[in-house]
Write a structure and sequence with these properties.
Elements lengths: L10 H5 L22 H8 L1 H22 L3 H19 L7 H20 L6 E7 L3 E8 L5 E6 L2 E7 L6 E4 L5 E5 L2 E5 L5 E6 L3
Antiparallel strand pairs: 1-2, 1-8, 2-3, 3-4, 4-5, 5-6, 6-7, 7-8
Length: 202
């Protein structure tokens, strides 16, 4: 994801810069009478997914505002990644557990948006030394699927924690993997070689 550097809503509503408020307090953020995809129809039939959709729509609107304050390229990239997310959500019908897949997609996307666009304050920010010279600054976010924003020099990536792992393992759409175990960590930056990391002394 590239945001500064890395709903179910109707596709048109999601990609509009000025998406409106939810049409019903207990429904999704789009008009179910106009639902046209499998994913949208599923969200309309499931109150929990509808709630996640409203939450994600609010996050997306906040991310749009942040992107508009940056560059036209940032806004275009955000919209492009959202279109990709919608397609991924709608492809969940192909799996064995489509409802669980859609739910996970919502939580994963919310975590990406929060960490990528700093939509809330991080719970912890620290610095690790990885390999012999590289330093990374990591901001942790307490989203339902935990997420991190990793800054390595001028580059930034956003990774989301994978539920069920013994240790916290974060992965990004760009190929980064960040594994944390107490004060130790391991990093594969943008799909490169794995490096051992340790907390930098104050």
């Amino acid at each position: 994801m590239s945001c500064p550097s890395l709903l179910a809503v109707g596709s048109l509503a999601l990609l509009a810069a000025g998406a409106g408020p939810a049409l019903a307090q207990d429904g999704p953020s789009f008009d179910c009478a106009k639902a046209s995809t499998w994913g949208e129809r599923l969200v309309c039939s499931d109150p929990e997914l509808a709630r996640l959709d409203r939450n994600l729509q609010a996050r997306f609107e906040a991310a749009l505002a942040a992107a508009q304050a940056q560059t036209p390229a940032a806004l275009l990239d955000l919209r492009a990644t959202q279109r990709g997310w919608i397609k991924g959500r709608d492809d969940c019908w192909k799996g064995l557990y489509p409802n669980e897949c859609v739910r996970a997609n919502y939580l994963h996307r919310e975590a990406q948006l929060v960490a990528g666009w700093s939509l809330e304050a991080p719970s912890w920010v620290t610095t690790y030394r990885c390999g012999s010279t590289a330093e990374i600054r990591v901001s942790y976010f307490d989203t339902e699927h935990p997420s991190v924003r990793i800054e390595r020099g001028p580059e930034t990536d956003v990774a989301v924690g994978e539920p069920g792992e013994e240790h916290t393992r974060y992965t990004s759409d760009l190929g980064s993997v960040f594994l944390v175990d107490a004060d130790d960590a391991w990093l594969q930056w943008l799909g490169g070689a794995e490096e051992a990391c340790s907390l930098k002394a104050d």
